[in-house]
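Quick one: structure for this chain?
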Amino acid sequence: MGRTKAALGSAVFLILVPGVVAGVIPWLATGWQTEHELWAPVRIGAALLLAAGAAVLLRAFASFVLEGIGTPAPIAPTERLVVGGLYRYVRNPMYLAVLAAIVGQALLFGDVGLVIYAAVLWLTFAAFVRWYEEPHLEREYGEAYDAYRRAVAAWFPKLK
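Got it. Here's what it folds into:
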């Protein structure tokens, strides 16, 4: 798969999966409206968390296209294991970015339901990573993935 095809596939996947999970579903839950006037520092922090989540997500997708020459979608995987960029610090930056975007919206709109949604998603992501992604990556990339898994934390970035 060339980079152009990888970029197009990644863009479609970005819209269909994280776009729905972190955008459409929170919008359906909140209408992106708040019934309460929140304290300005909370709104600013929430907006920064949401923006950081979006930026991390876009950067992680770019790594799949540029470094991996593929997409995050299981039906169009990368040709190479992605270990650069944000993946040097944490193995799951996309999932963390989606969670940050949802928690940012929860704070921005004062919606406890979105916090619960984020917690359920984190459990779902952790289970998916543990029982599907990690065994798949181990089979696909062997020792390279095993060494990467031992060196880089799954959920809590180690800034070296």
